[in-house]
Amino acid sequence: MTAEEFNNALIERHGIKIYEKLKNSKAAIAGLGGLGSNVAVALARAGVGKLLLVDFDNVDITNLNRQQYFIEDIGKKKTDALTKIIRKINPAAEIDSLNIKVTEENASKIFKDYELVCECFDKAENKAMLINTLLTETESTAVISATGMAGYGSSNTISTKKINDRLYICGDGVSGIEQGLGLMAPRVGICAMHEANMALRFLLGIKEI
Fold first, then answer.
1. How does pLDDT run across 89-108, given as a tens digit for each residue?
2. Could you give the angle at the alpha carbon of 147 between the alpha carbons of 172 and 41, nearest 5°?
3. CB-count exposure of residue 159 (10 Å: 0-12, 13-18, 19+)
4. Which helix (H) or strand (E) holds 160?
5. Distance in angstroms between the alpha carbons of the first and the last residue of the chain
6. Helix, strand, or coil (residue 150)
7. Which residue, 196, 157, 204, is CA-closest to 15?
8. How far is 58 from 111, CA to CA, in rounded Å?
9. How far apart are CA 176 and CA 151, in angstroms?
10. Model confidence at 132: pLDDT above 90
């Protein structure tokens, strides 16, 4: 399948107006685990034109229960593995990747050129760091974050909340792995799709939930 064929299929599905808007949009995904790998694939399928994939980790066998990787990806850099997967889905997507650990010192430099960052880290302290850094050190970058998706509780407790014009938070806000709940594909996937759907709405100019 060629990039042109994929684009034509998107135009047929979305209509030219939505297609063009998404094609000319870009988004960054910070963390390529259970949230980030699913968010990135969803945005690529929808036709977002440019994606920045950021992670410093390698694919591990324990990732396969909820992340968009395969047995043959074990040991590979997540940035490389996910880039290859996305290109198999959407050959028209422009993909940049950085195999780097995001810190308070480099976060604004990495993401300053992106109007939207999907925060997909595992640890609460890293989530807070990225949100605080981008909201204070960039002029307009918005963040879609997630917290509370562990276990196998009700799907209906996961929601999207708008905190302000530059911050949205998805999840149930309480179900964390620190409570002894494991991360499973269904709820992690539901939360990731909340992030991806809000990202699409944002990129299309719809800022309300």
1. 999 999 999 999 999 999 99
2. 105
3. middle
4. strand 159-164
5. 35
6. coil
7. 204
8. 21
9. 8
10. yes
